[in-house]
């Protein structure tokens, strides 16, 4: 039985002080100084990309050869292995055009001279003045050929409402005997 309020004791004895936990690497384990001073660089292996099969082209050529059954198509695909063409797809191991850089281009720098002269404030003020002039100008009404304002369907229906339909009390013949 374990003691009250204490976990059950482990029956295994721990190794001595000279024991190293984990894996000891004889060649590389030089501690922090070696890790900081000597970086291991890995040479990139040339990666030849295997393109996927081009089933569309193989299917067309198989039909041209006269294949009509599934087994014939399977044999054609087996012996005439046509792969998709590499169109400089930029994936892992793909070809990169010379002079191409990745990432977003930096923003063009703001001209310091325009900031010092409050040029952006002046542009904003001109924009606001133009907006107020447009808002204050009267809205021109659409004028017809005869010089009068044209009516649309809504204004016509307001002036001339449709006649109200009277409710008919017509009932089918089969309900007359009820």
From TrEMBL:
Protein origin, superkingdom: Eukaryota
Protein name: CFA77 protein
Species annotation: Leucopsar rothschildi (Bali myna)
């Amino acid at each position: 039985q374990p003691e009250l309020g204490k976990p059950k004791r482990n029956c295994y004895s721990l190794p001595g002080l000279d024991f190293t936990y984990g894996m000891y690497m004889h060649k590389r384990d030089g501690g922090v100084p070696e890790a900081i001073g000597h970086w291991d660089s890995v040479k990139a292996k040339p990666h030849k990309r295997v393109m996927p099969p081009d089933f569309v082209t193989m299917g067309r050529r198989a039909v041209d050869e006269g294949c009509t059954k599934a087994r014939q198509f399977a044999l054609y695909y087996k012996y005439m292995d046509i792969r998709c063409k590499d169109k400089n797809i930029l994936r892992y191991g793909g070809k990169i055009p010379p002079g191409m850089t990745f990432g977003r281009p930096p923003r063009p720098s703001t001209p310091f001279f325009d900031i010092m002269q409050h040029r952006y404030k002046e542009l904003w003020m001109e924009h606001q003045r133009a907006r107020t002039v447009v808002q204050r100008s009267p809205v021109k009404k659409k004028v017809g050929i005869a010089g009068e304002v044209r009516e649309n369907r809504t204004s016509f229906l307001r002036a001339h409402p449709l006649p109200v339909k009277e409710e008919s009390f017509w009932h089918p013949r089969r309900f007359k005997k009820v």
